[in-house]
Amino acid sequence: MDSRIVIERAWLSHAGRRINYIYEGVGQAAKFFLGRPLFYAEYEVDLSQVPESILLIPLVANLAPIAWFSGLPLEAPMLDAKFFTALGQVKAVFMNDYPEILENQSPILVESLIDNNISGSKHAMLFSGGVDAYATFFRHQEEGLDLISICGADIPIQDVTQWKRLVDLIDHEPLLETHSKQKIKANLRDFYTYHVSLLIPTRAWWGAVQHGLALNSLVAPLSTIRGYSRIYIASTHTEAIKIKWGSSPEIDNRIAWSNCSVHHDCYEFTRMDKIASIVSTSNRVSREVCLRVCYSELSDGLNCSTCEKCLRTMFGLSLMGVDPSRYGFAPSRDAYSKILQIILKGFSTEGIRYLWWQFHQRMKVTPVSSIYLLGEEPAYNDVFKALAVQLDRPVSVKRLSTMKMAIIESFPRFFSLYLKIRRRLL
Fold it and tell me: pLDDT digit string (tens) for 348-394?
């Protein structure tokens, strides 16, 4: 049976601000897509002058990994030549983590490779408002960065409420007021079926494979209009720990098109280093920033202040001697009790365990008098003791949590409907 993924063309609508893509999964590839699903990306600028070989980059970037892991060819009518070369290099990186790709016949077949020469020297960064993003922003803010926020990644494309909160936060933050803000919306996570997630053992397609290529490639059409020569993407992890993750220096630093390249930033910094940098900069300018780290599906505010990520960030801020409420959180008096519950349950991934290890190292050298206590000192000491024990234990994979993430990854539209219903009942 003839099986392949075929891209036909890209076309613009909405006064040139939305790219619509026509493509098809043929034969065995059909199961990855329901019929001929629309993939689209919306911008705030007119893209009429952008070459089609660059307009196609966001789609190719999202389809290429599906082709690699399924062993199917991907066909495209044209593509930017430098991006085509970059894809080959990124594929080689994935081969190191997933040797099975070596056994697949998954070429990218392009009829015309175009050498684009887009002028410009401006720098930009992907900006989410979180710890990683602000660490990169403060490091490079003197470069006059454009700040690019994306809906359809961590914030579901249908979640208008969360997206508005992020946009309002970024648009009204005084420390960001001199920087141009660009917004992009794209259905990055709901154009394919659950069969895509089944291509890897963890089922976490977005985190483990898709997101680095997907997010960076969305900037390609915009870079042509705004004249970007460099894009920064903030690191999630650090060089001290190696896990299978879709965004890393090995992947991101190879992504390029025309005269624009991507830089994976702050990889040498730990999470604690980043928090320290944010606190230090805030002290220097006498103004705290409102961090947005929470993507809890049931949060009715900027941060829920009760999920593991919120508690972890609040704890890190407190170790720096600052009140988390000054950075967009609402810590409760039983915060240490909640943190203790999380620790005693065990860490579900090596990445999360490493983050708590960093905090434990900080606790060892920081006197309690220098810490902003989130509760009573004995409760703080209980957290320290629990970490000492749990960090020596193997990672405890939580099957229920893993199953939940697999369902969200596989059926994003149904999950969005579930959220709407549940939020109305709260």
Answer: 888 899 999 999 999 999 999 999 999 999 999 999 999 999 999 88
Query: Which stretches within 230-270 are classed as H helix?
Result: 249-252
Residues whose CB is less than 8 angstroms from the CB of residue 142 and which lie 6 or more positions away in sequence, other chains included: none
Q: What residue segments make up the domains of the chain, in order of their start?
A: 293-390
Report whether 290 contacts 327 (CB < 8 A). yes
Three-state SS at 151: strand
Which whole-number Å values give the CA distances from 375 to 130, 205, 270, 299, in the listed order?
25, 39, 26, 23
Residue-level pLDDT at 414: 60
Q: Would you mind telling me the total number of residues written for the chain in this entry? A: 426
pLDDT surpasses 90 at 107:
yes
The answer to whether the CB of 123 falls within 8 A of the CB of 145 is yes
- Count CA atoms closer than 13 A to 310's CA, side-chain side: 22
Backbone dihedral angles phi then psi of residue 196, each to the nearest 5 degrees: -65, -45
Cα separation, 279 vs 293, in Å, equals 15
